[in-house]
Queue: 4 jobs
Job 1
Amino acid sequence: MNINSLISHVTLASVIFAGAAFGASKATITMQSFGKTKDGADTALYTLTNANGVKADITNYGGIVVRLFVPDREGNMDDVVLGYNTVAEYILDTPYFGALIGRIGNRVADGKFKLNGQTYNLVTNNSPAGIPCHLHGGTLGYDKVVWDAEPFIENNTPGLKLHYFSVDGEEGYPGNLDITVEYRLTNDNSLKIDYLATTDKATPVNLTNHSYFNLKGEGQGDILDHVLMFNAANYTPVNAGLIPTGKISSVKGTPFDFTSPHAIGERINDDNEQMGFGGGYDHNWVLDNQDGDLALAGTVFEPTSGRFMEVWTEEPGMQFYCGNFLNGSHIGKSGKSYHFRNGFCLETQHYPDSPNQKSFPSIILKPGEEYKTTTIYRFGTR
Ligand code: BGC
């Protein structure tokens, strides 16, 4: 289905798919226009509803998860991700709310790396402590492009297949990268993301999703009372420019130890050099599971709503960023400003600056190989 031809016929949300239901409710997908980009390209917003009434609004602009409604322990649905109501606001200014990130998620020191004897210069679009680096794919990362979209329902599970062809040289990266991302809203209340990519030239690839969560609901204050547990005995400490030093350090005895449950706010103001560099948590955890199988990376629990979220991934790392750069300047979907630490991200990934860190797992994809990785955000209550 060509979305542009569909969008031109659809102004109000209309049901475009309904699943076959056997006892349970039917999964549905509706679609509406999400407005035009500056170049006049149409964008669409797809509402995926699973058999339990859990809903995700996803746009093909940046593959952004715009809304995600999940129940609290009383069954009340709240939107647990930060974001905007219009594509225009995402285009104007976003700290990557809900977006797909690539070609390299996270930072590359000085925007430079060497591959097969050649030095590649990426756009430097970020400079923590005045030290320039490449962040989240550059000035025109995958969060800022329009993806081809194909909604589908299989086994009463609604999904959205997104495709983007990232050309050789884009933002300085070598090789044409053919990318498919599939979102599914499964009936165990999971948002499942499958990333697939192939290339015609060796290139670094590290895709992720940059959703900011607040399990109380977006706009409902800070996330410091959320309780985390990570299956990660180590993390990658950084320098002042938020680039890993190359060390894999034990979390034991530090505020980075979430091997047992701790509230985000519990140790965030501890006198700790790493916490100073990040302005709070903004680090990559080395997940205990390193074999590429799907494993539980961590769990987040919000006591007042009773909501929890599990993160499952095949990736070896996870960036936990707790919204230290949010400063009230972004006004979200319900008209509320997003202030300091009003949302947190759990970005499953390979480690930051991987192309320059020989001891980290490689992110180089070669022609003939397939980049294939899955991450699941599963929601429940207790
Ligand atoms: C990074 C932060 C960065 C933020 C941008 C996160 O993934 O870890 O350092 O500022 O993205 O919004």
Job 2
Amino acid sequence: MPNSNKTKIHIGLIGLGVVGQGVWKHLQKHKTDLGRRLGVDLILKKAAVKDPARERSVKLSDAQITTDPMAVAKDPEIQIVCELMGGTTVAKEAVLVALQSGKTVVTANKALLCDHGPELFAAARAGGGQIFFEASVAGGIPIIKVLREGLVANRFSTICGILNGTCNYILTRMEREGQGFEAIVGDARKLGYVEADESLDLDGWDTAHKTAILAWLAHGRWIATKDMAVEGIRDVTLHDIEWAGKLGFKIKLLAVVQRDSASGRIFASVQPTLVPRSFVLANVDEVFNGVSITGDVVGTTVYIGRGAGQDATASSVISDIVDAALDLRNGGCQSPLPTDNPVDLLTLDEIRNCYYVRLEVKDKPGVLAEVATLFAQKDISIESVLQTPACDKRSAHLILTTHITTGKRMADALQEIARPSGARQNPSAYP
Ligand code: HSE
């Protein structure tokens, strides 16, 4: 029973889908204990849903259900609004209305933050409320808290992570079972892992949204996805996974946020990447996420856990609710956000990496020499070369690894490479 002497904090949910139901269920279960620890009563007041008649795993009274998100956003009694509906139109309107009324917003919506972060945080400052967003990146891993609080003493040279469980699941099964992308993506769809807008997962945009949030927390600058190198996993072939394996790597869809120590400029990218098997992130498989953060004070720390799903995401949302309740109880903000920092970006052409390149070429005299000459003309130094017959025997796979070079040199070389090599298909090239 609620203790009538305690401060009451009313919570409203916008969206009662998989994550919303998880939040409702676990908060109901733990609210007495959490309330005791916080010295407040946490009261789940209302949830906005699309279809009140839908079967749900949690039971709400008629008075607790509305079909109008604004009925939650504008409810004067509700102090914490949890936006869990997704999308960037109605969700944005509801979040802005809540913030303009001085409420605190908890959201798992990475696309919303990536596309409208500066406007939303300005609205929070103007209204006197806050935005909490632990569930927006890496699901149940408390990576936002790590950057905001735990590692606040650091400047970050490199953050890299596996941030999309669906892509990681597909790549893991391709590697283990030797089946192609199309076969495995079908299973991922059946299991409900792939977002309704498949491009978000498969073309890397979901990872890019999360990367933008990490970059902002680490460096104080929002990087638009158009300023990142973003490539998904649709073109990753079994040949590439197998060759990467023979070279001692696994292919992962890796988000990278890096600060160039010489210029202080930063860049962000999302690309299939060869990760050395000896690096802990190479062994983050299936739907799991993993993030490695290198700071100048702490060195490298690594975080692994479930990046999606009802319970993992609910765990992060409830952690935000607890932080929000603490701030409301104490009348302040416990963990400040980064200050805006107009740091410049490295252009995509300037980004420096070693590359893996696989070409399917005509197996005839002089082709290897021509490819090597082209790389030399582009000032790219080759580290190793391997060749193996392709299926039709008249062709061969040529696998090159390079020393560090720039994105521009590699892009120029790839554009011209079809000519000398008589390439049968587009080359694969991954950092
Ligand atoms: N589609 C996302 C993923 C959901 O697969 O990781 C969690 O953000």
Job 3
Amino acid sequence: MRLVFLGPPGAGKGTQARLLEKRFGCRQISTGDILRRHQSRLTPLGEQAHHYMQRGELVPDALVIAMIEGELEQSPSGWVMDGFPRTVAQAEALDETLARRGIPLHAAVLFNADRKTLIARLSARWTNPRNGRTYNTLTNPPLVAGIDDQDGGELVQREDDRPETVAKRLEVYDAQTTPLIEYYRREGKLVQVDAMRSVENVAHQIASAIETESPAW
Ligand code: AMP
């Protein structure tokens, strides 16, 4: 299964991608997580990306596209792209790469979400920087505040989950990523889910949407 997850920050794409990975073994490719790992390892890419990420802006297409090519090499049996593509240029590059390899994309899943809820969700989000697992202090708190239930390590609030950066990220999503909705609709790949429901409900919506769209997967 090869899927693209589209939707504003805070809509739950990462949570659903991790669930699909656990349940069906299709690898989560989160460009945000990969870029954050580059930053913590202080690689040249991480240093270049930091400048954009801390402002809530997009990292330039050329950098992200080169990075994704390498990721595809490591995931021959299926993946979920969480946070890529975010621009039409990135979607075109992905289409070209997949066409060259002769592997089709099964669907682009659009997470529909209400703005006010997104802002509340992002400001309540705590992340495990070691593996990207997230908690929400309102809806899905850790057993002990600030500590990951599974590895016992510290949780952090992402620098770009601060209110002013969140507003910028939503603005960037509207301007640069929403044209992808039409892009995938034209390709006949778009399916939509109501991302405001529970984690289990959204997982169920995704499974049924994909089943209808691509019964053979
Ligand atoms: P995310 O974790 O998906 O919310 O991404 C965090 C930040 O990483 C974004 O605000 C961008 O600065 C950067 N980023 C992640 N994915 C992409 C992408 N596909 N294109 C450009 N920038 C990206």
Job 4
Amino acid sequence: MQICRTKTAIRARITDWRSTGAPVVLVPTMGFLHDGHLSLMRLARARAGEQGRVVASIFVNPTQFGPNEDFESYPRDEARDFDLLRSEGVDAVFAPDIAEVYDPQAQTIVETTELAKVLIGKLRPGHFRGVATVVTKLFNIIRPDAAVFGEKDYQQLAVLRTMARDLDMGVEIIGAPIQREADGLAMSSRNVRLSPADRAAAPVLARALDQAEIMAPTGITASRLRSHVRATLEGEPRARVQSVDIRDAATLDTIAGPLTRPAVILLAVSFGKVFLIDNRVVHPTPPEEP
Ligand code: AMP
């Protein structure tokens, strides 16, 4: 596995690969990898094929963190990450430092004007501008045929699909299902920062989503479903509920009245200083019997 620290090094490597006509698939991450990330690497390999190339990036992107967020304390372990990527058969990793990515004179940003303002964008102003800008830069540096992102960050996936479409980026955006711990907690690099008591309490997010999935096909309205989910979360005294939203799964538009189309339930909950998100797509009709 090639470890590239500079844009020049990764570009040279990819130019060589491209000349053989093999597809290049990118998996952007912020490192401190877990099985959720590794599932993305496997999906990337499936898309690239044995002849294709899988490139991961590891970059804790400062521009997507707010001033009082956890950029400094975000967990990092590059040596372990490289070992995991190697064992997944990843062909190259782009792991630049901040100065390699951001010129202090830079003045260009990428923003999905509407999607960046709502939901997580409201809780974390500027977050999606940071994400869209850095992903654009990664796309321009690596020029992948496809890129894989997790459904765990549902709104991020919507932002990036919209961005790639609006700006004719020519990069296929592939969504990957959420990977969970045995007790249902969605895997996240931030989970290691939960205290033992908070770690024990955190599966309440998955429990609330399980209940919502069962209630969704009963003709319930979006606002009643939202109240139920919020009540379940608030039943856990360690949880500080930041937001509970039920939106159209395809457009992220608000829903009035009963569910009539697939909806996504989006949760943001803090435990101490640790900010967790989770989501589930639910359906207004029960799944058909096989
Ligand atoms: P991060 O390192 O947190 O920026 O995540 C890198 C990529 O991995 C993003 O596309 C995330 O959506 C995805 N990801 C993170 N956690 C999970 C998970 N539990 N299951 C699936 N994908 C995930």
